[in-house]
Structures are given as structure tokens and as C-alpha cells.
Amino acid sequence: MSSTNNNQTKTALVTGATGLLGRQVVRAFQGLSVPTELSSKAGWTWEVKGTGFSRADGVNVLKVDLEKEEEVERVLGDVSPQVLVHCAANRFPDKVDADPEGTRLLNVEVTRTLARACASRGILLIYISTDYVFSGKPGEAPYEADAATGPTNLYGVTKLDGEKAVIEEFSKAGKEGLGVVMRVPVLYGKTEEGRNEESAVNVLLDAVLKAQEGKKVKMDHWALRFPANTEDVGRVCRDVAVKYLSTSEAERTSLPRILQFSGEEQYTKYEMCQLFAEILGVPVDNIEANTEGNDPNASVQRPYDCHLSTKALKDLGIDVSTQDFAAWWRRELRAFRH
Known about the structure:
The structure is a single chain. This protein has 338 residues and is α/β, with parallel strands linked by helices. It has a domain at 8-189 and 228-264 and 310-323: NAD(P)-binding Rossmann-like Domain (Rossmann fold, 3-Layer(aba) Sandwich), CATH 3.40.50.720. 38% of the residues lie in helices and 15% in strands. It has helices at 20-29, 37-42, 69-79, 93-98, 100-121, 154-172, 203-211, 230-245, 249-252, 269-280, 311-315, 325-332; strands at residues 9-15, 45-52, 61-63, 83-86, 124-130, 179-184, 187-188, 217-220, 228-229, 258-260, 287-290. The chain has a seven-stranded parallel beta sheet, with helices on both faces. Strands 7-9 form a two-stranded parallel sheet. α3 runs parallel beside α5 (100-121) and α7 crosses α10. The longest helix is centred in the first third of the chain and has 22 residues, at 100-121.
């Protein structure tokens, strides 16, 4: 990394900045997450803007309809970012199946529009993708970044098509080193005003509390998950931006197009519920472990094990350490015990 980059101010733009992940990506670029050797060595300060729609404040989070190309062009012109982190997506498989056209518009076509606009301006785009681009068949994981894909549901298909759109648009513009895919697993972290439904992990806490009312809850004890904390993902996105922007244009083309970050602790949803119950000091008698796997008649088929290898990030010298899942939740749920 060149010392000439020290003490520069850079600008980052984050789509979906009011969402579960987007909020922590913003915080990471603001310098509110754990500093790393890479970010400290760069010595950069970041100006950060987000985009949102229903919850935009017009100051830090700009109201932008990403489905309108003219609004995308306008915000890129107004903000002039060096990096755009694209977090906005329909990321819940069941909701995707309920609105396939709207999902394809947001997950694929909006991504293509952003990629084309960023490529034409020489802006680094980090596109947040998912482990669900893989089939997750037993025995295949952990998946390297270049492993064969094979999504089992429409959500995974649309995110994979979004990946292809990013790579295609930057390739067409001759800017291959600036279009980057970042795959992540199921996410957990601080939700907004107790909205646990923001996360497929956090929402399990609601299931545990519901079970205390005497209601039977069936919980998956088949699929393996490797949850990642949104604070860690935000930190990694910032460090990827530092790494790619501080690499010369000639050398940047040799950097990987696809990166992967993951938690390393394995849980089923039922095991997460057991952990939450243990922390809260409540029984799990009414939570029934379901080991049946996918219902073959269900519209959404979920993969068994999509554990992602983080080798590509490690090879770049990027810190892939993760927070201790149980320890984070013990801190977070302390208030519930008093």
C-alpha cells in the first residue's frame, strides 16, 4: 500500500443504509467499528452517505428510488463516491417467492443499473450476495469462491444473477477490478427498535419468548448455518474498499472478483433457540426439534450446508476474525435477565 494515500478523505455510499446490514456498513466507514491494521495503515477518513426510501432522513440517508435510473445517476453525481456498497435487496426467501417480479427488479435489474453507472464513473462497487448461490448438498461445503454454483430457491437465483450483472457490466466497461461480489451467510446483529424480524437469527428470540406462552413451536434442526455479525461484515467491506482503492489500476485487475465472508461457528436454528433459552434462563420444552429437512412440496427449498470459505479474503490480507456468537448474545440479552 502506497504511503501517498495517507490522510486522504474518501467518500462511501451505502444502499439500504437503514437496514440490518446497511446500518453497520455505514458505522464501519464512519470509523465506529473495530480498527484493523489495513484501515489504520491507510490513514483514510471517510465521508459516508446512505440511500433509503421509506426511512430516509434526507441528510445522512438520501431518499432514492433505486428502480429509477435517473435517481441513481443523480445521487452518484451529487455524492461522487469512490465506493458504493450495495446492501439493498429482497433477502427473505419466502417474501421473494411471494413477489418474484419485484424481487428480480430489485435484486437483479437495480444491481445492473448500479453496476453500469459505477463502472462508467470508475466507482468501486461492492455487491452483497449470499451463500444461497450454492446448492448446499451434504459433503460439498466449505465452498471456495470459484466453486460451482447451484441455488435451490428463487432468492439464490436472483442474487446469483445480480453477481453476473456486476461482473458483466464492469467487464464491458473495461473496469474489471472495480466490480466486487461479497457473499455472506445468514446475518445477525443489532436490530432497530426491537424489530427482530430484520434478521432470520434475531427473530428466533421471538420464537423462544412465544414458547413461554405455552405455544408449541417447531424449529428446524437439520440445516447447518454459520451466522455472521453485521458489525464484522461492515468492517470487512470497509477493508475491501481500502484494499482495492489503494491498489494501482494495473494491479487491480488481478484482484479477485468474488469474495466470501462467514461466521465459523455452526448452529441449526433449533440450537440457536436452545442457546437463547439458556441465556434467558427459560425452558425450551415447547420448542420441538424438526430434523425432517425440506418438505419436497414446499415452494422454498433451503440448502443443507452452504458454509463459505474465506480464503480469498485471507489471501488479500484482510482480517476475517469473527465475534463469538454466544458471547455477543450474552451481552445483548443481559437486559432481559434483569
